[in-house]
Design goal:
It is a single chain. The protein is of the alpha+beta class. The protein has a single domain, classed as Beta-Lactamase, CATH 3.30.450. The protein is built from four helices and four strands; from the N terminus they run H-E-E-H-H-E-E-H. The chain has a four-stranded antiparallel β-sheet. Strand 3 and strand 4 form a beta hairpin. The longest helix is centred in the N-terminal third of the chain and has 18 residues. The radius of gyration is 13 Å and the shape is globular.
């Protein structure tokens, strides 16, 4: 499969919500397909409204560059080779919480983005969602 299925995207959102609940966090969770189009989304009760856009942009950023958003952020620091990249593509997010999703062959088939807590929690919740295999 070269694209994430709706079934897989929903399973990823569910796993991410479980991890967020275990951390005591209320998150916005977005999954995009191989074309960076929104495939599944959940806003947990009480999650910040401002994090809706951030979660979606984290997922899109991870797919656009096929790397975790935190890794892209390291390259986007002042003096870095990608400084100011967050202003491209209609706005990117270059801090942790976005993770590419790969199939069994190692091909990127989508991405997940999470926002609503400290970035360490966002990243952990995104990893929990990305780990789902159905």
């Amino acid at each position: 499969m070269n694209d994430i299925s709706l079934h897989q995207a929903r399973a990823m959102v569910s796993a991410a919500m479980e991890k967020a609940a275990a951390l005591g966090a209320r998150m916005n969770i977005a999954v995009v397909d191989a074309g960076a189009n929104l495939k599944a989304f959940a806003r947990m009760d009480g999650a910040w409204l401002g994090s809706v856009d951030v979660a979606i942009k984290k997922a899109r950023t991870a797919r656009f560059f096929d790397m975790p958003t935190g890794e892209l952020g390291k390259l986007a620091q002042p003096g870095g080779s990608l400084y100011n990249i967050e202003h491209s593509n209609g706005g990117l997010i270059t801090f942790p919480g976005g993770v590419p999703v790969k199939n069994e062959q190692g091909e990127v088939i989508g991405a997940i983005g999470v926002s609503g807590s400290i970035v360490e929690n966002d990243h952990a919740v995104a990893l929990a969602g990305a780990a789902v295999r159905v």
